[in-house]
Amino acid sequence: MSAVTTQTLGRLTGAVRRGPRTRTGPRLAPGRPIRFGKALGPVLLLAVWSAGSAAGLIEPRLLSAPWTVVNTAGDLIADGRLQGHLASSAQRVALGLVFGTLSGVLLAVAAGLSRIGEGLIDGPVQVKRALPSLALVPLLVLWFGIGESMKVITVALAVFVPVYIHTHNGLRTIDSRYVELSETVRLNRRQFIRHVVLPGALPGFLLGMRFAVTAAWLTLVVVEQVNATSGLGYMMELARTYGQTEIIIVGLVVYGLLGLFSDGLVRYAERKVLSWRRTLAS
Predict the structure, then answer these.
(1) Among 173, 164, 180, which residue's Cα sits nearest to residue 199?
(2) Least trusted range by pLDDT, from 20-34, 188-202, 222-236, 256-270
(3) pTM
(4) Are 179 and 113 in contact (CB under 8 A)?
(5) DSSP labels, 125-181
(6) In 3D, which of 261, 244, 255, 231 has the Cα closest to residue 71?
(7) Residue 110: what pLDDT?
(8) Where is this protein found (predicted)?
(9) What is the pLDDT of residues 123-179, one digit of tens each?
């Protein structure tokens, strides 16, 4: 055997004895979150906006100064207009969330527990998923008119899809060991749904709710501009007619805060209900 072959075998033998070499380098460490870290971006944006307005680089007709927006918001609150429009919008979102969530959960359970149900339900839902809810507004106007029913149904359709998709996915990804255990302890159909199906689908459902609350507010801002007489979208559309940029910005800020607050509520519920799951974010 040549010297080269002997050296090669020696290196391989030594590598096998030492085992695989572990790669060292920077690792992803959770660490402690930065306090008020999520506020850094908005604060920087506000600072640039204020500086541009003060220096006259931003045309007031196109984008009102921050202090003008704040004064306008104070006036809207003082005369009660902002609270009235906010109450109308909140009512539409609440009704849309209720109807959309119930429909999404019920259909997801029916499709997740039955192959026949999945064949009948999942296909049409996937078709609806490819169609934006706002694209259905002309058809919904023909069916339900331009009243409150059309607005609530449009919001419900926007909520329904993410709730169904994520709840159905949660059902399909339940650990098979739990199903086998339920068969071992002989759970009946109702007990199986209560103790295995619903807890197993809960993480997917809560994830779907995070998408749903955001979709609800995004949809509402458009449908409230269709022959509405109240609501934040109506307030913004009226301001556009009269060129009141500051009121439009007030409406956008309120919409953003409402979406952030709604998502925060769902995330809080997720942390409480799913406290047993330890993730990098926690």
Answers:
(1) 173
(2) 20-34
(3) 0.74
(4) no
(5) HHHHHHS-GGGGHHHHHHHHTTSHHHHHHHHHHHHHHHHHHHHHHHHHTS-HHHHHH
(6) 244
(7) 86
(8) Cell membrane
(9) 888 888 888 877 888 888 888 888 888 889 999 999 999 999 988 888 877 766 666
CB 262 within 8 A of CB 213: yes
Q: What is the pLDDT of residues 252-268, one digit of tens each?
A: 889 888 888 888 888 88
Count the neighbouring beta carbons within 10 Å of the beta carbon of residue 144: 15
Asked if residue 161 lies in contact with residue 128, where contact means CB atoms within 8 angstroms, the answer is yes
- Return the structure tokens found at 267: 């995330």
Whether 167 maps to a domain, the answer reads yes
- How far apart are alpha carbons 127 and 190 in whole angstroms? 31
Quick: pLDDT tens for 153-162. 999 999 999 9
What are 129-138's contacts with CB under 8 Å, separation 24+?
129/161, 129/165, 133/157, 133/158, 133/161, 133/215, 133/219, 134/219, 134/222, 134/223, 137/222, 137/223, 137/226
**Is 94 within a domain?**
yes
- The pLDDT of 51-78, averaged and rounded, is 86
Number of domains in the chain: 1
Rounded to whole angstroms, the Cα distance separating 140 from 96 reads 14
CATH number of the CATH domain containing 195: 1.10.3720.10
How distant, in Å, are the alpha carbons of 5, 44, 105, 179, 223 from that of 192?
64, 52, 17, 8, 41
Structural domain span for residue 254? 65-273
Q: Is 231 exposed, middle or buried (0-12, 13-18, 19+ CB in 10 A)?
A: buried
Sign of the dihedral through C-alpha 208, 214, 217, 220: negative
